[in-house]
Amino acid sequence: MQAHGANPKGVDWNTEEGQLLRFRQLATLIDLPGDFTVNDLGCGYGALLPFLADRFAGIRYHGCDLAEEMIEAAVRLFGDRSDARFAVGSAPAQVADFGFASGIFNVRLTRPDDQWAAYLEATLDVLDATSHRGFAFNCLTSYSDIDKRRADLFYADPRHLFDICKRKYSQRVALLHDYGLYEFTMLVRKT
């Protein structure tokens, strides 16, 4: 965010259009017309909030992020909203109807794949424990072209994560891998 500010490039997305496409995939999890709660794990500057609020009436949003500067930016942008709360942290402080994690599993820097995969799976446990109706997340895909991959990014195996979600969290799991980006979105519906 230091180089680009509170915008999609500041949270490592190439374009705003790509970010909105990701948000649309995540939002397909929502099966209520409104009046529900959301936890946004790794919320960055809070961009998911206006996207959801424009589409669903009466949502109550809680964003948390490890980076204090991200939370400060979110508060500057959206702190006057009565339907939103932001906090520095690695896990939501409360259980919500829906949990989301967008982009937090991509940048592993120099961590080995096995350590990053363990972090990802532990974070799925957090999403599960802090959501009533379900959770959704996205990852870069292991089906990405090998010559276009970056060494500092993590490319997850969607089959492996689908299997984990199906066996551990719910029988109602959807894998979205057809929206034109080198990634996938997983939806885990609990009820």
Automatic annotation (TrEMBL):
<feature type="domain" description="Methyltransferase">
    <location>
        <begin position="39"/>
        <end position="127"/>
    </location>
</feature>
<dbReference type="GO" id="GO:0008168">
    <property type="term" value="F:methyltransferase activity"/>
</dbReference>
<dbReference type="InterPro" id="IPR041698">
    <property type="entry name" value="Methyltransf_25"/>
</dbReference>
<dbReference type="Pfam" id="PF13649">
    <property type="entry name" value="Methyltransf_25"/>
</dbReference>
<protein>
    <submittedName>
        <fullName>Class I SAM-dependent methyltransferase</fullName>
        <ecNumber>2.1.-.-</ecNumber>
    </submittedName>
</protein>
<dbReference type="InterPro" id="IPR029063">
    <property type="entry name" value="SAM-dependent_MTases_sf"/>
</dbReference>
<keyword id="KW-0489">Methyltransferase</keyword>
<keyword id="KW-0808">Transferase</keyword>
<dbReference type="GO" id="GO:0032259">
    <property type="term" value="P:methylation"/>
</dbReference>
